[in-house]
Each structure stands twice: as C-alpha cells, then as structure tokens.
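[job 0412] stage=complex_fold ligand=zinc ion status=START
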Amino acid sequence: MSERAVQGTPFAGSERPSRSFGAGRTCKELGCETKLSMYNSGKYCYQHEPMSVPRTRGKKIA
Ligand SMILES: [Zn+2]
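[job 0412] stage=complex_fold status=DONE, emitting structure tokens
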C-alpha cells in the first residue's frame, strides 16, 4: 500500500494579478472589446456601464 497525495488545490500560479483594478481589461459586455482603464473600477466600458449613463440632461418626459 502506498499513500497517495491528493491534490485538492492546484496552484496555477498567478493567472490574474489582483493589483489595483488591473490593466488591459476589457468590457464584460458580450462582443464588446473596449479596453477598460485601470482607473475604472467597473467591469463595463463607459458605454455599457449600467449606472451613471449620461443622457440628455434637463429633459424630463412626463
Ligand atoms: Zn462595453
């Protein structure tokens, strides 16, 4: 009988550097390859950002 070392946690090195927000990221939107700024904390580009969408200001449709 021989003891087998079961590998439960595969150390695949550092695949994605978790420094700041990471540079060279792209928009999460499918098909969108817009590169995100490393200062952009979001996952989407300015076009697909779910919040803070700059629309026509001052125009209220009642
Ligand atoms: Zn996008």
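DSSP finds no helices and no strands in the chain.
[job 0412] exit 0
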